[in-house]
Amino acid sequence: MKVLIACEFSGIVREAFAKRGHDVWSCDLLPTEIPGKHIQGDFLKILNDKWDLGIFFVPCTRITNSGVRWLIERNLWKELDEACVLFCSALNAPISKIAVENPIPHKYAVERIGKKYDQIIQPYQFGHGETKATCLWLIGLPLLKPTKIVSGRLARVHREPPSAERWKNRSRTYEGIANAMAEQWG
User: Fold this and answer.
1) Euclidean distance between the first and final Cα of the chain, in Å?
2) Residues 68-124: pLDDT tens digits?
């Protein structure tokens, strides 16, 4: 398949699909951390390039439930609207199989997106002893089945200390989840 992994700088999901023989490209405004097929730029410009599968990790800062308090305190409604337009651009892309990943959204984002998520997954369902509730909006794809449920569940990403790299460390996809996506959706 020809696969687009959008808003992924890490290359983790791209490489999981590449190992299974797919023609897979990551696309992000940042350069890739793992050398491979990567388009540095805006994924909106390549949506019409006849992809068979698109997996989108759109920015979650204004959409996620954990940041809802800032909407009123900092008057970030315009940024929320822009984030939801980008989210909907991914969800409504001209691709037959789509997955959009994001943390649990707040009610204002759900209203703007117009579609509730299809599934919530956790890293501990895919071999990682951690918690990080992650929602999937799916089109033309089955629910992702857990591959290895483990105990010892920590909220590591929530304990990430303040730093310039904190957002990057929190946004990387777990390899177990990436492998499950490639195995089950590829």
Assistant:
1) 7
2) 888 989 999 999 999 999 999 999 999 999 999 999 999 999 999 999 999 999 999
The whole-model pTM stands at 0.92
The total of other beta-carbon atoms located within 10 Å of residue 15's CB is: 22
Please report the pLDDT score of residue 135 as a whole number. 97
Task: Measure the CA–CA gap between 110 and 124, rounded to whole angstroms.
Answer: 26
Torsions phi, psi of 104, nearest 5? Answer: -60, 125
Residues 6+ positions from 70 with CB-CB distance below 8 Å: 76
Calpha distance 27→155 (Å, rounded): 28
pLDDT at 38 over 90: yes
3-state secondary structure 24-87: EEEEECCCCCCCCCEEECCHHHHCCCCCCEEEECCCCCCCEHHHCHHHHHCCCHHHHHHHHHHH
| Edge-to-edge order in the sheet of strand 119-121 | 38-40, 23-28, 2-6, 53-56, 97-102, 134-139, 119-121
